[in-house]
Amino acid sequence: MCHQTVSLVARVLEAGGISTVTYTNARDIAASAGNPRQIFLNYPLGNPAGRPHDAHNQREVLRAGLKLLEEADRPGIIIDLPYVWSESKEWMEKFMTDEQPFTSDEAESKRQELLQKAREQKGRQSRSRRGL
Question: pTM for the complete prediction?
Answer without folding.
Answer: 0.69
